[in-house]
Design goal:
mainly alpha, 4 helices, elongated
Amino acid sequence: GRVHVRDVVRDDFDIELLRIDVGATFALGQRYNLSACDASYLWLAAELQCPLATFDDKLAKAAQAHLSSLS
């Protein structure tokens, strides 16, 4: 049969797939003037309660402001 990437990733790397909250991600993008991709990274960091590592200054500032407001 066919092998799907989703099955391989789950079996080999024990990666959890999460459904993104589109509304919350959109709100983060609007609040911090981020792209959809960057807002998704920020949403995920907040959801997992973990730091976000980036070389992008704009995303780093947004992460510092947003994640520090959650503690």
